[in-house]
Amino acid sequence: MSRSAHPAGPRHGDVLPEAHATTPPADLNALDARVWSRTATRTADGALAVGGLDVRTLADEYGTPAYLLDEEDFRARCRAWRTAFGPGADVFYAGKAFLCRAVVRWLTEEGLNLDVCSGGELATALSGGMPAARIAMHGNNKSRAELAKAVTSGVGRIVVDSFQEIERLAGIAAEHGVRQKVQIRATVGVEAHTHEFIATAHEDQKFGFSLTGGDAAEAVRAVLKHPESLELIGVHSHIGSQIFDMSGFEVSARRVVGLLADIRDEHGVELPEIDLGGGLGIAYTPEDDPREPHEIAKALAEIVGRECEAANLAVPRLSVEPGRAIVGPTAFTLYEVGTVKQLDGIRTYVSVDGGMSDNIRTALYDADYSVVLAGRASAAEPMLARVVGKHCESGDIVVRDAFLPSDLAPGDLLAVPATGAYCRSMASNYNQVPRPPVVAVKDGQARVLVRRETEEDLLRLDVG
Ligand SMILES: Cc1ncc(COP(=O)(O)O)c(C=O)c1O
Ligand SMILES: N[C@@H](CCCC[NH3+])C(=O)O
């Protein structure tokens, strides 16, 4: 994803059929600020440290693999988004990127709202103390139970995604005597420049109501037929994920405002809100160049303001739903090297003690990551290697092509940055491998947010 075609780089005469790394970095021990969280640094003797803690100590204490989450960075990113959008807009953190109760508390304290898309995410949000009114619920196939829980908990909005769901939700809200606020998920017909699995606004896909096909207008009519149980507050668009190019968001904003104008013309109502979703890309490697929240906020406010003026509409309240852009850069995964296998003339495989069960993104989206030797610094020559996991799958790749010091050996610690989003939340127990813990670090203190799974945890579910 977002991967440019890199020419193969030289390495000990190896043949590198599909190498993506370019030339070795000038300093293999350097921590590039684009991919590392803000408190990541090297200690005087060269080890990686974060939140004031040396990864060697963290590995001893919490084991590997482990996700280490920089709380200060997380909070700073929340504040940057809040400040950029200001009091006239709402920032909903997309819980799917990574959610646990501590994160919910941080979000609540930092003034963010929360987007959930399953009963489990809703339960975590409520259990972590997020006021229900600040929760938005998504999903293309919410169950009756999930809808009922959302309605009875008092969630601030439900984003409806199908005609069946509109009727289902109207019935549930009526049953509970609730007038539920809803937004309509519109498919705005944008081909977002990202991996096809995570683009969501082109016509041929499962989410939302098509604008061009007229389904979005029909969905508005369907919602407005239930004035006692549904209150239509706005239109929602999410064009995809890991996007760098602002033009897709601009087209989306223009089309969403166009729909608001059509609704005003047909029904005589001006809807008070629009949500332009999440999707802002982050740097997984130093080649990626993401936009900052204030640039995004400015661009979106300008386009919405301009389009509303042209359509003679009052500017609606704007909301956005960043997930990856908040949590992605705040964590890295710490692994221990188990084997280093040099296949002469082919490549070097470095096996770590995790893999596709803690980071499926490389296998699923062909995603790029970077990696550094974390337990020490090294002045050895760079070698081009592939960092792989321990699973019974040859596609079990963590970092496809990485320059690491050639004195790398079993027992060394490696750290893969930018794994805060969609790694723990998409982790699996493939090969009955227990999922790693999430450990928050701040000001020299570490705190387990999500503990490591144990074999007992796995066996507890096995009741046959
Ligand atoms: C509706 C919705 N909002 C927000 C997000 C968050 O996206 P990201 O983590 O790319 O910001 C997603 C996921 O793509 C989504 O489906
Ligand atoms: N899970 C995806 C993004 C999809 C987000 C949800 N719509 C990723 O890792 O990039």
TrEMBL record:
Domain Orn/DAP/Arg decarboxylase 2 N-terminal: from-to ranges: 73-327
Region ranges (Disordered): 1-25
Pathway: Amino-acid biosynthesis; L-lysine biosynthesis via DAP pathway; L-lysine from DL-2,6-diaminopimelate: step 1/1
PROSITE patterns: ODR_DC_2_1 (PS00878), ODR_DC_2_2 (PS00879)
Binding site for substrate: 324, 361, 365, 393, 422
SUPFAM superfamilies per record: Alanine racemase C-terminal domain-like, PLP-binding barrel
Pfam families tied to this protein: Orn_Arg_deC_N, Orn_DAP_Arg_deC
Keyword Lyase among UniProt keywords: yes
Catalysed reaction, written as an equation: meso-2,6-diaminopimelate + H(+) = L-lysine + CO2
Annotated signal sequence range: none
GO BP terms in the entry: lysine biosynthetic process via diaminopimelate
Cofactor(s) annotated in UniProt: pyridoxal 5'-phosphate
Record-listed pyridoxal 5'-phosphate binding positions: 279, 321-324, 422
Listed EC numbers: 4.1.1.20
Gene Ontology MF terms: diaminopimelate decarboxylase activity; pyridoxal phosphate binding
Keywords in alphabetical order: Amino-acid biosynthesis, Decarboxylase, Lyase, Lysine biosynthesis, Pyridoxal phosphate
Record domain Orn/DAP/Arg decarboxylase 2 C-terminal: where: 333-420
Catalytic residues as annotated in Swiss-Prot or TrEMBL: 392 (proton donor)
Uppermost EC category: lyase
N6-(pyridoxal phosphate)lysine modification, residue list: 96
HAMAP family, sorted: LysA
Family under the similarity heading: Belongs to the Orn/Lys/Arg decarboxylase class-II family. LysA subfamily.
Subunit structure as annotated in this protein's UniProt entry: Homodimer.
Its biological purpose: Specifically catalyzes the decarboxylation of meso-diaminopimelate (meso-DAP) to L-lysine.
Name of the protein described by the UniProt record: Diaminopimelate decarboxylase
Provenance organism: Mangrovactinospora gilvigrisea
Organism lineage string: Bacteria, Bacillati, Actinomycetota, Actinomycetes, Kitasatosporales
